[in-house]
Amino acid sequence: MALAARLIKMHAKRFAIHNLSPKMIEKLRTLKDADFAGKRVLLRADLNVPVKDGVIQDDTRLQAVLPTLRQLLDADARVVIMTHFGRPKGIAVPELKVDAIGAALSDLLGKEVRKLDDCIGAEVEAAALEMEAGDVVLLENTRFHAEEKANDDEFSKQLAALGEVYVNDAFGTIHRAHASTVGVAKLLPAYAGLLVEREIEVLGGLLQNAAKPVCLVMGGAKIDTKIGILQKFLERADYFLIGGALANTFLAAEGYNVGKSLYQEDKLDVAREFLLAAESKREFVYLPTDTIVADEVSADAESLDVLIDAVSGEMKMLDIGKLTAETFVKSIREAGTIIWNGPMGLYEFPQFGGGTKAVAEAIAESNAVSVVGGGDSIDAINNLGIAHEKFTHISTGGGAMLEFLEGKMLPGVEVLLAE
């Protein structure tokens, strides 16, 4: 089933979206608020998909933009799509051209998507002006120009010249103040696409009226991207389940020997402050009590499940242990709302994937409202073969989801609000 259909088809779990912040939903300009007939629509999509040897490995993000794209085409719009791809650092990198993306989008859409050789310039503008109703053009990687990430005014004007109306359907980049997400939106009438509208609706619902108990499941590597939501939900969550390398920093902050495990030594004070705040508020923070360790990271590495206080020497903690997984699963089964971002270990290797598997399956089988975000979490779900319909909502933007749930006003959303 296409991702957009999954987002709209909220399965029959206890979920009433008492929708997002009322003020925001009232002000958000959406596709319902404009007539796109015959207009050149500059559509910001997130088509940053994994590609190997020229073959797209996962087309989830392509599928996600199709409903908005089709609605615009049904309105006889002329659609100019812009996206970034990879991290070319402001220069044209042949391997990061979007030709394969254009070809795949053509197949999915069932019609030609003309791919251009740049995203700005006289030739690009001429091609846009020549478009007829129902035509679709894909611009070259916007990040081939350093001005994109700098939100350069002149670059924004050159992009804006390609359209008469702007639509942002790239939730995964909406927390970045770039030219294609903010600069252009200030120059053209700007609207949220169906995907962005739905993401804000679902995530806003969690902030307004989450079913209790609320459980945050946080994994991954760095505390920097997770501490904001952890702190925000001290007032909202009933318990936190922390795994992955993220947990290593908290364990080190508690004085445990983490061996040669990945952790952030410079963030130990941040971790301690959170743990103290959680204790004072009587929140339950569950850290691993046992862990899967190995002396090396490789497909054939020998692993061992040990208690946390037995970690020492050259040991690397690479997954939560079986006892910890059982504790996490029990908590997940009791939750009314679950927010999950980040795997429990190096799930890419079978011997270090048990924790992520246990957590993913427990969330999928839960009756709770379940929201999943982050590329690694979604990749793990896909690798495990768990149907996306098993979750209430899978967010297309890991960083954007976390920042939204922190309560931040995202730059790309702010410019879509009516004054």
Distance between the termini: 37 Å
Number of strands: 17
Structural class designation: alpha/beta
CATH architecture annotation name of the largest domain: 3-Layer(aba) Sandwich
Structural domain tally: 2
Report the top-level CATH class of the largest domain.
Answer: Alpha Beta
- Give helix % range: 25-40%
Classify the beta-strand content into a percent band: 15-25%
Major β-sheet, in short?
6 strands, parallel
CATH topology of the largest domain: Rossmann fold
CATH superfamily of the largest domain, by name, is Phosphoglycerate kinase, N-terminal domain
Low-confidence stretches: 1-20
Number of helical regions: 17
Shape: elongated
Numbering strands along the chain, what is their spatial order in the largest sheet?
5-6-4-1-7-8
Q: What is the residue-averaged pLDDT?
A: 91
Rg from alpha-carbon coordinates: 22 Å
Structure at a glance:
This protein has about 425 residues and is α/β, with parallel strands linked by helices. Helix content is about 35%, strand content about 15%.
Explain the overall architecture.
β2 (51-52) and β3 form a beta hairpin. With 419 residues, the chain is of the alpha/beta class. It is built from 17 helices and 17 strands. A 6-stranded parallel sheet has the order 5-6-4-1-7-8. A 6-stranded parallel sheet has the order 11-10-9-15-16-17, sandwiched between helices. The protein has a 3-stranded antiparallel sheet with strand order 13-12-14. The protein is elongated, with a radius of gyration of 22 Å. The protein folds into 2 domains: 20-196, 3-Layer(aba) Sandwich (Rossmann fold); 205-403, Phosphoglycerate kinase, N-terminal domain (Rossmann fold, 3-Layer(aba) Sandwich), CATH 3.40.50. The protein has helices at residues 3-8, 22-27, 60-74, 99-109, 122-129, 146-149, 153-160, 179-183, 194-209, 227-232, 244-253, 268-280, 322-334, 354-365, 375-384, 398-405, 411-414; strands at residues 40-44, 51-52, 55-56, 78-82, 114-115, 136-138, 165-168, 190-192, 214-218, 239-242, 284-286, 290-294, 304-307, 316-320, 337-341, 369-373, 393-394.
